[in-house]
Write a structure and sequence with these properties.
GO terms for molecular function: RNA binding. It is built from 27 helices and three strands. The chain has 540 residues and is an all-alpha fold. The chain starts with a helix and ends in a 25-residue tail after the last strand.
Length: 540
């Protein structure tokens, strides 16, 4: 690498002093005295060595292209072509070099995407095959920026990856990765992440280069793009991007902040310093934020469990006027995010309750359950409580049977918190067959996320139900360890079957000494053996 750098510097330094005639023959040593001439600008000198030709789409290349009138005219014709037919005619009328052929292929791909053309007809055209062969035969002379766009275009057109021309382009890009600019690497990484995913070998090499050259990263747009599209593939790169985003936090627009927080939320990266910086600058920005920005921000904060009261107050205040125009899914998502954060905004919750009353027909049972669950977590009672819960009971009438056990349990728990549970709801969740289905003892296996205990209800997360053998062994182990520490005589009952998962039941007096469980009434069970009430100070 050092030797190549020295050769390039020497070549350019010597080329600045040669005469125009000698520049066309770089290998010929001029005879006789060399006349003194003005030093030419470096950008006007175009060496013909391979390493200089592949330096990228630089100022030097643009100047050289602009100095050739024919090349400039052909480039303009390629850019202004409105159909594949015009491009193919251009390739027949003018002798093209490999760089121009690559530009034609790139333009063909763009036209196919814009006009929704059939890519197969383009690939099967004889003239396209000629363009591809010309590019392959002189691939080393294609400029860097054109080469990157060529690779994207071939992927977009659906060229078979096993074709020699395709493999040649991929290999050439792989060889030139060190000479690509950071922006070209970022653009290529974004494209490959969307097209090929984590399995792409070329993407892995591009990410390695990005990790090594992250100090070259400039501009908010590239940071936001890499965090959203590539950060989930490389945790090491994401660490660097978070540091850079913290440095540029003041320059981000509200939409940039939205995209960054969403990227952090989807990747479960709770970077507190970055979130604090973004929240501070967001709260300092005057003016009303858009609805999409508001809903995505509160969703990201809820998913990351990040609390920032000033931002919550701003989001709730800006979001309230938009509630009436939101969809049921957006309303449910928004209010549940506030519930996860346990942030109660009375005007916003009142607006949500009024939205539910005004849009009863558009609300599905699932959306309504989400709103009730959020109100329960916030312990919020609407001002029009009677009308609201009358609508809820009418909407839920006859619908409990169609819901899965998990959502039904969450719904009834929420109604109990709101003091709105009626007999049909309790009868449904207290039925023995419902218990068996909830515990996964009969019927189909319980899906992952069911069997949540009270603190987990409505949080949208839960560990998968363990396998039956693992559950039995774990329960037996806990039973043995607990029994060994307690005296015998009926102080521990393992036959408990309440709605929530419980391994055993214990009654303690005011001095924390165990009492016989079966002697006392158990209103939480379907059948209670005891009749005595609990003594004062005792607890179950």
């Amino acid at each position: 690498m050092a030797a190549r750098l020295v050769r390039r510097c020497c070549w350019r330094h010597w080329g600045a002093f040669v005469s125009p005639a000698a520049r066309g023959r770089p290998r010929q040593v001029p005879l006789g005295p060399v006349p003194t001439a003005r030093v030419l600008p470096l950008a006007s000198f175009h060496p013909s060595s391979p390493w200089s030709r592949a330096d990228g789409f630089s100022v030097q290349e643009q100047v050289e292209e602009g100095r050739n009138p024919e090349h400039r005219v052909i480039g303009e014709l390629i850019e202004t072509a409105a159909s594949p037919r015009e491009l193919f005619q251009l390739s027949e009328l003018h002798p093209l070099n490999s760089n121009q052929a690559s530009l034609v292929i790139t333009r063909l791909s763009r036209l196919a995407a814009e006009q929704k053309l059939d890519a197969r007809s383009i690939l099967q055209d004889r003239r396209f095959q000629q363009l591809l062969s010309l590019t392959d035969s002189q691939i080393s002379q294609v400029w860097n920026n054109t080469l990157v766009n060529l690779l994207k275009s071939l992927y977009s057109l659906g060229v078979d990856s096993s074709r020699p021309e395709m493999q040649s382009v991929e290999q050439e890009v792989l060889w030139r990765l060190r000479r690509l600019s950071f922006r070209q690497l970022a653009s290529l990484a974004e494209f490959l992440a969307l097209r090929q995913g984590k399995e792409s070998k070329l993407l892995a090499e591009v990410i390695k280069k990005l990790e090594l050259r992250w100090t070259e990263l400039e501009g908010t747009r590239t940071v936001v793009m890499l965090m959203g599209k590539v950060g989930n593939i490389s945790p090491a790169l994401m660490d660097r991007l978070e540091d850079k985003a913290l440095e540029l936090a003041e320059q981000f627009s509200p939409d940039d902040i939205r995209r960054i927080t969403l990227a952090l939320a989807y990747q479960n990266r709770r970077c507190v310093p970055l979130l604090r910086a973004l929240s501070y600058h967001l709260s300092q920005k005057h003016g009303e934020l858009g609805r999409a920005v508001l809903t995505d921000l509160i969703f990201a904060y809820g998913k990351l469990n990040f609390h920032q009261p000033q931002v919550f107050q701003k989001i709730a205040g800006d979001l309230q006027p938009h509630v009436a125009s939101m969809t049921p899914a957006e309303v449910t998502r928004c209010v549940r995010s506030f519930a996860l954060l346990k942030w109660l905004s009375l005007p916003l919750c009142e607006a949500v309750a009024q939205y539910a009353l005004d849009n009863t027909k558009q609300l599905s049972v699932t959306h309504l359950c989400g709103i009730i669950l959020a109100f329960a977590r916030l312990n919020f009672q609407p001002s029009s409580s009677e009308d609201f819960f009358t609508m809820v009971h009418e909407k839920l009438q006859g619908q409990l049977e169609s819901l899965e056990p998990g959502p039904v349990t969450e719904l009834v728990w929420s109604l109990c918190v709101l003091q709105q549970a009626k007999a049909p709801y309790l009868q449904r969740v207290l039925a023995p067959d419902f218990h068996a289905q909830l515990r996964g003892e009969v019927g189909d296996p319980l899906p992952a996320g069911r069997g949540l205990n009270t603190p987990q209800l409505g949080q949208g997360r839960g560990d998968a139900e363990p396998a039956p053998s693992e559950r039995v062994h774990g329960w037996l182990g806990r039973r043995g360890s607990v029994s060994a520490d307690l005296p015998s005589g009926g102080s521990l009952d393992f036959g408990v079957s309440p709605p929530l998962r419980t391994d055993a039941e214990l009654v303690l007096n005011s001095e924390n000494k165990p009492l016989p469980v079966k002697d006392f009434a158990a209103p939480h069970l379907l059948h209670s053996e005891g009749t005595k009430p609990l003594p004062p100070g005792a607890r179950r």
